[in-house]
């Protein structure tokens, strides 16, 4: 009996991931009717079988309605980090430039702006690296202090803009934050932002 129950739950979990892969909201709701705790188990059961939560999968593929439904049912899933790069769903949405999904995730937990990945980067760092200008603006409005966080290598958000060739985001951040301290700060290699900018001929 216990083995059969385990097989049933495993099958339902597989169907949940299938639904996330296609953004199938009716299937999600049907699964929740069959097993109201199915999303809870995505938090409790950390297994190598699934490297990401169903929310990560849906966010990565840009499924707004599915993301919204999951967040409505289980907002705690917004706090889960994947087992690949320790990215939160907010990291993923920020990298992809999914503005509406970013807004949904911020509503669930704005403190996830401070969640760090394996390199110590938060969501606004990732948005800057990928040149997601509008996402940077949204994240700055939500938690402006997150933009002042440093990575594991001591990089500021301005260092990241220069290293990843995002001069427009760099200029916007300098104008918005107006912080000479950030401009003169050094990373773990002793490089200031201005050194990197001159070397890259962005200034």
Notes on the structure:
The chain has 203 residues and is mainly α. It folds into 2 domains: 1-149, Ankyrin repeat-containing domain (Serine Threonine Protein Phosphatase 5, Tetratricopeptide repeat, Alpha Horseshoe); 152-202, no CATH class. It is built from 13 helices and no strands. It has helices at 2-22, 25-34, 38-44, 54-60, 64-73, 89-96, 99-108, 123-129, 133-142, 157-163, 167-177, 180-184, 193-199. It is elongated and about 65 Å long. The mean pLDDT is 90. ANK repeats lie at residues 119-141. Keywords: ANK repeat, Repeat. Pfam families: Ank_2 (PF12796). One of its GO terms (cellular component) is plasma membrane.
What is the CATH class name of the largest domain? Mainly Alpha
Instruction: Count all strands and give the number.
Output: 0
Return the structural class: mainly alpha
Oligomeric nature of the chains: single chain
Globally, the shape reads elongated
Largest sheet: none
Please name the CATH topology of the largest domain: Serine Threonine Protein Phosphatase 5, Tetratricopeptide repeat
- Written as H for each helix and E for each strand, in order along the chain, the element string is HHHHHHHHHHHHH
CATH architecture of the largest domain: Alpha Horseshoe
Radius of gyration: 19 Å
């Amino acid at each position: 009996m216990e083995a059969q129950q385990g097989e049933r739950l495993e099958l339902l979990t597989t169907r949940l991931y299938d639904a996330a892969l296609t953004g199938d909201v009716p299937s999600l709701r049907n699964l929740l009717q069959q097993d109201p705790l199915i999303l809870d188990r995505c938090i409790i059961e950390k297994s190598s079988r699934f490297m990401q939560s169903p929310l990560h999968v849906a966010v990565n593929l840009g499924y707004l309605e599915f993301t919204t439904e999951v967040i409505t049912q289980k907002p705690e899933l917004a706090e889960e980090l994947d087992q690949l790069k320790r990215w939160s769903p907010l990291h993923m949405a920020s990298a992809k430039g999914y503005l509406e999904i970013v807004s949904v995730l911020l509503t669930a937990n704005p403190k996830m702006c401070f969640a760090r990945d394996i390199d110590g980067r938060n969501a606004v760092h990732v948005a800057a690296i990928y040149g997601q200008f509008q996402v940077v603006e949204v994240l700055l409005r939500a938690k402006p202090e997150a933009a002042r966080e440093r990575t594991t290598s001591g990089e500021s958000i301005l260092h990241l803009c220069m290293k990843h060739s995002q001069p427009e985001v760099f200029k916007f951040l300098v104008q918005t934050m107006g912080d000479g301290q950030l401009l003169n700060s050094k990373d773990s290699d002793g490089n200031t932002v201005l050194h990197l900018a001159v070397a890259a001929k962005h200034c």
